[in-house]
């Protein structure tokens, strides 16, 4: 491909991208292909000779697109949104064109300094403690692992990094039973072992029980364990439950436990004045994570991680071989020293585009609308005689089930599983499930960038019609 062919193909692809955004509602939200369908259509090996972009793009449309689930479809109500937006996509195009490896300041000074400034902007937008410092990671899973390893090294005086485990470490990790699975994965990767992850009971709202936390910490101390690190969740994945952060901070302070706050999805709501209650006690936390790629309309991947003690973070991860030594070291941020990866993408650019194009006002308006529409839906569900809410809906996720009076409690889980399957197979909307107190629970998330109120109304109508057809 020469530059003229590139220009022609690029224009064609941009036209397709714009058409896709305009017509995304015509696609089935969840891919309807069967396992192996895409794989079987692909050749067994790469071509010997190069192929034209016409042929490649045709196969993209005919083979790849049918096998894609359309996360930017306004009927997407599954998981938490992995969002996108027009300014973010444009920035991603420029990022791919620059193709910079932004591991240290010298490899692209603007990338590092833009990232520094975006972390300041996010602190201002979310009303985070001024003294915190931030870095962009790929996902909250990575940030959680980074937090845990930093806590491990800070507690041991950075000895495990140097000498490895000596066999006498008896660390305990704490998280609610509703915490994200990335917590246990981090515990495993950090070498602490799943058996040392202590899961704390939750109350009727699925928030962490302070009484149970205190009891388990005291029991561990009595048994000779060392309470090391815990996670407080603001907006759990299952039900968007909010742990009592202020009370958690008091326990962590008393027992000198590193407190990590997981607000991967719900953190974005902290930009709203009426959701400042989410941050009560936050200034006492040691680390905090939220994902602009979830509810701040920035393309995956983009995770904002903040710490109270950036020096300890860098001391944990800094490793400077000869080929990375530069005269600017010590005078600039080298973000490769702030986490696991040496190689780093220029993620700050898309965040900059989004924050500037939407503005604070535009972001607040979108998020506030999402919350209002979800809570209006929760009210409709609560009032319907054949449906019931299964958890509070403080934000923009609604947990519910279909409960016709003629169906016994023993059969309700199977009925709701069938309902979810039928909804997703329709291609009109896409939802997921969880289990709350062993009850099969359907989750509906509002938050796709370009969703409107009528999309939520349509989803509820589809749910009602489909449920009626099952009876």
Strand order of the largest sheet: 1-7-6-5-4-2-3
Number of E-type strands: 11
Radius of gyration, in Å, reads 24 Å
N to C succession of SSEs:
HHHHHEHHEHEHEHEEHEHHEEHEEH
Helix percentage range: 40-55%
Q: What is the third-level CATH name, the topology of the largest domain? A: Aspartate Aminotransferase, domain 2
Task: Let me know the CATH homologous superfamily of the largest domain.
Answer: Type I PLP-dependent aspartate aminotransferase-like (Major domain)
Give me the oligomer status: single chain
Question: What count of domains describes the coordinates?
Answer: 3
Structural class: alpha/beta
What does this structure look like?
With 471 residues, this protein is an alpha/beta fold. The chain has 15 helices and 11 strands. The chain has helices spanning 3-23, 37-41, 53-64, 86-98, 109-126, 140-156, 159-163, 181-189, 210-222, 245-255, 292-295, 310-317, 348-383, 409-425, 453-470, and strands at residues 133-137, 171-176, 197-200, 226-233, 258-262, 287-290, 303-307, 387-389, 397-402, 432-436, 439-445. The strands form 2 sheets. Strands 1-7-6-5-4-2-3 form a 7-stranded mixed sheet, sandwiched between helices. The chain starts with a helix and ends with a helix.
Summarize the structure in short.
The chain has 471 residues and is α/β, with parallel strands linked by helices. The chain has 15 helices and eleven strands.
